[in-house]
Amino acid sequence: MSRSFRPFAIAALLSGLLAALPAAADSVLLNASYDVARDFYKDYNPLFQKHWKAKSGETVDIKQSHGGSSKQVRAVADGLEADVVTMNQASDVDFLADKGLVARDYAKKFPNNASPYTSTMVLIVRKGNPKAIHDWGDLVKPGVQVVLAHPKTSGNGRYAYLAAWGYALRQPGGNEKTAQDFVGRVLKNAPLFAAGGRDATTTFLQRRIGDVLISFESEAELIAREFGRGDFEVVYPSQSILAEFPVAVVERVVDKKGTRKQAQAYLDYLWSKEGQENAAQNYLRPRDAEVLKKYSAQFPTVRTFSVDEVFGGWGKAYAAHFRDGGSFDQVYQQK
Predict the structure, then answer these.
(1) Distance between CA 27 and CA 197 in Å, rounded?
(2) DSSP conformational letter for 108
(3) Cα 290 to chain center, whole Å?
(4) HSE-up of residue 109 (Cα within 13 Å, Cβ side)
(5) Phi-psi bin for 60: left (phi > 0), alpha (psi -120 to 50), beta?
(6) Is domain 27-116+245-271 in CATH 3.40.190.10, yes or no?
(7) Which helix (H) or strand (E) holds 73?
(8) What is the pLDDT of residues 161-212, one digit of tens each?
(9) In the 8-state DSSP scheme, what is residue 36?
(10) Rounded CA separation 200/184 (Å)
């Protein structure tokens, strides 16, 4: 190649290489979410990207950050530039509202108090249920090892804790004292606390620790997908807690990045038919009545109580049970 033609050849080569590279995204969103939502958003994100491309002509790249819910919101408060948060309890989003990162009235900006789907807590036991675990009361039997996520740092763990507390409270003669005693006995049967919901699953199935795992109903199906159905059974207790999953736009971040339109659309689409179908396919109970009816065979009827109904809302529940010196600290010290 002559020296005079070399620049043109190099320019042509670079042009070809650039053409072969994927087009840069028009915008990038970061979703900070709780630990066991990985699979849901892994399936949801391509659905939204296709929808947004067709609607706006824009290409949006979506990044995920997962961990224990309380750790996640602290990371956002400390500077993690998430455009949206998709959590599993209102107290964590309230924490960000108190910091001025999300709107104080975030729950009114979307339907269903900003919770696009629900779940409940179930008991996952070894195949054949060798310890005969059928309800919350069986978790205090001698010799039964209970695995759950840490109630101080994980929404999964808090739901497990409050589910057991609410069960005891709603028994004949139940009161705060009997509930605290019951939960204390459950925790005495816990050999350890996992960092988050997915870590609890790994502890139970891969490390083979424990006789029963307390987790979301949706996690049981995800366990089946990953590990097969031969090693465990799902026990639906006589009653359990209604788990809701609030979402919010991180106002300060989207205003800084100029991504408010995309972030709002990303969360809005969770209530679309496609978004609701994806929830059902990931064993989360959709809000859309038609979609829920379509998948009713996989969602057994279960008697549930809400955090508002039994504990007066997440603010009161958090203050009474999970702040320093609250009921968790009291019963854990006796463990």
Answers:
(1) 31
(2) G
(3) 23
(4) 16
(5) beta
(6) yes
(7) helix 69-77
(8) 999 999 999 999 999 999 999 999 999 999 999 988 889 999 999 899 999 9
(9) G
(10) 19
Hey, CA dihedral for 268, 45, 87, 75, is it positive or negative? negative
Report the predicted TM-score, pTM, of the whole model to 2 decimal places.
0.84
Burial 258-282 (b: 16+ CB within 10 A, else e): ebeebbbbbbbbbbeeebbbbbbbb
**pLDDT for position 221:** 80
pLDDT at 103: 97
CATH topology of domain 118-243+303-333: D-Maltodextrin-Binding Protein; domain 2 (3.40.190)
Q: Does residue 70 contact residue 288 with C-beta atoms inside 8 Å?
A: no
Please report, for the chain, the start and end positions of each structural domain, with discontinuous segments joined by +.
27-116+245-271, 118-243+303-333
Report d(CA 149, CA 67) in Å as an integer.
12
Q: Considering only CA atoms, which of 308, 313, 330 is closest in space to residue 151?
A: 330
Query: Residue 101's pLDDT is what?
Result: 97
**Local structure of 326: helix, strand or coil:** coil
The answer to whether residues 87 and 245 touch, using CB atoms and an 8 Å cutoff, is yes
d(CA 180, CA 187): 11
* Predicted local distance difference test score (pLDDT) of residue 335: 62
CA distances in angstroms from 55 to 20, 30, 51, 183, 231, listed in the order given: 25, 20, 6, 50, 44
Low-confidence ranges of the chain (pLDDT < 50): 1-5, 7-22
